[in-house]
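# step 3/5: fold
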Amino acid sequence: MHFKYQEWDPRFAKGAQQSPFDTLMDLFEELLTIASGDVSQALRWLTELDDQYSITDQFDDFGIGDFVDELKERGYIEQDREQNMLVITRKAERSLRKRSLEEIFKNLEKGSVGGHQTNHTGRGLERQPETRAWQQGDDIANIDSVGTMVNMLKHSNIDQMRLHEDDIRVHDTDHYTSVATVLLIDLSHSMILYGEDRITPAKKVAMALSELILNNYAKDSLDIVAFGNEAWKVDIEDLPYLKVGPYHTNTQQALQLARHTLHRRKYANKQIFMITDGKPSCIIENGRMYKNSFGLDRKIVNKVLDEAVKCRRDNIDITTFMIARDPYLQDFVRELSEANKGRAYFASLDNLGGYIFEDYIRNRKRRVQ
């Protein structure tokens, strides 16, 4: 009898064997994200990979054509009659967001459902071990029955039990608050320069964060802003389709649009997350673009820093996730963080998602004045 040992993979544990469809779906969704939602391109790449690595040879009578047919049957792709091409459906968009969440946050625990825990105790959702005297309006579900009974017994006897209002103890609960977040995604040309794909991880993070908030923190708000020569809002459903363009980097307008968006959100806590390679290279001045792609132009930099200060005055924190290694660009990000009194993470592409998730959860804990 011979044994073959290999690294354990939970997907292939007993009862968890992946079907041919699921195996190809993992690869297809990765290619679909890179292809910015282009189904035909993703399928071409999948076919090329199958030709090169014989992926479907391990399956019994299941090829790429069968996979495409099942994609249609399961409602992941459909034929767009107007454009005469295959497109992904809403179900596929949700699946991409869920996949990104699982991929990026697979080593991190999910937070509590439904709110942001603060350092302040009061009326909330999660019971604490500490107790206090009952007050008018307290939820009777939080009464400490043992503590209340002990207090009552202190002035009662066998013949007569007397419960006074002062006897009643209730458990403290964590106070929860909502958070308004704007996520900024840099779509400038530098996000794909020098053969380094920075935009695919950025999109995955955006999809994962949106899925996290939609499913776990329904009372929160998430707005997404893409920026290049200008800044514009992006719907959650459009995230898979984002592409880098022949753009400069208008960081100032991105921060300005985020600030104006947060002004309309009636939340106590507001924050901006910005994923960028760090170099602002243009501003809009008197209706015209002023640009300088060769370095950190002080005129442009000062406009960005001015916007960071405005955000600070409005109690809007900026957390920058820097995905470039150039020291002079990192120095600019530090200058931006100092102006806003915010935070900066100099993250590798592999760590980008974890950093955003950890900071999003941490930003939920805010002291209520």
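# step 4/5: annotate
The chain has ten helices and twelve strands.
# step 5/5: archive (pending)
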